[in-house]
Amino acid sequence: MRVGLLTGGGDVPGLNAAIRAVVKRGEGEHGHSVVGFRNGWKGLADGDVMPLTRQHIRNVLASGGTLLGTARYHPHADDGGLDAVLATLEAERIEAVICIGGDGTLHAASKVAEAGVRVVAVPKTIDNDVWGTDRSIGFDTAVTIATEAVDRIHTTAESHNRVMIVEVMGRHAGWIAATAGIAGGAEVVLAPEEPFDIDRIVRFLQHRHRAHASFSIVVVAEGAVPARGTSMSYETQVGRFGEIVAGAIGERLGAEIAERTGFDTRVTVLGHVQRGGTPTPADRILGSRFGVAAIDAVTAGESGVMTALRGEDVVLVPLADIAGKVKQVPADLLETARALA
Ligand code: F6P
């Protein structure tokens, strides 16, 4: 069987482990030939094909990024995009597609599957907000990087008696903020799941600095928002088209805290450093497990499903079940972050 493989959406560490697993298992165990499409669904629509053999996946297990390239492109949202995808598949005699991506890529996967193509998806996102799976590829590495950053910020915060705001990624869910906040011992963790009250934060910081501390760390997810009706305006961190503007909430929060408390305050926006570099062992293992499960699923004739981690097991879940849902941080995890402040 000829199987097409693509990576879509933002890159994450661990994608190459998944690609390697699909190729090794596909060629070795099942005798398939695997071809790659460059730059996500766009490459599939444009017929931008590359061979993917064992030679192409040598020494990629520990490397970050994606050897296939990636893009944010949704064929169903583009006039003629879906037809172009179907035409490429026919021209290249591809019988099944494996796509590795986050919510946008998975949504496209369900549309392509609905059009009659055999599609199996693999979840990746550092945000860890894909519904239906306990973990997505890339999350563990991002938390490791963010935790190290918080640790490093601690020492300089303490030396200078400062309030340090660390903005991490997470547009719709605060998984990185909550976990790196707990692991790094942040005093305040702010996530999109629970809109915050700036007055409470200011009171808390003032009390803490009066009582026993001369520095504080605030970890804020880029998608965190002030609660409506509180004294910080709501619109300031969304862009012209309603999208989250990275750095906006961190900078705004830093300015508000500095103004209201008089504390020396600095802002660090971690940004894409969270998505770069070497994957952790956990992401290499997850990518490898998902890759094997995906090619096995395709071989077994599955379609319209996504590989998922449930506890210790890799299972398949219908793409239809996850569409339009965001896996939010459970309240008890946010409560743990609060309890340890
Ligand atoms: O969706 C994953 C993510 O890393 C988000 O956390 C972040 O908001 C976004 O991608 C950044 O996207 P881009 O790489 O297009 O700037």
TrEMBL record:
Q: Does the keyword Endoplasmic reticulum apply?
A: no
Q: Where is this site: Important for substrate specificity?
A: 104
Annotated positions binding Mg(2+): 103
Xref: InterPro entries = ATP_PFK, ATP_PFK_prok-type, Phosphofructokinase_CS, Phosphofructokinase_dom, Phosphofructokinase_III, PKF_sf
Its cofactor is:
Mg(2+)
Q: Where is the Phosphofructokinase domain?
A: 2-298
For the keyword Secreted, the answer is no
What the protein does? Catalyzes the phosphorylation of D-fructose 6-phosphate to fructose 1,6-bisphosphate by ATP, the first committing step of glycolysis.
The entry sums up its family as follows: Belongs to the phosphofructokinase type A (PFKA) family. Mixed-substrate PFK group III subfamily.
Q: Per its record, how is this protein called by name? A: ATP-dependent 6-phosphofructokinase
Record the organism: Isoptericola dokdonensis DS-3
Q: What is the lineage of its organism?
A: Bacteria, Bacillati, Actinomycetota, Actinomycetes, Micrococcales
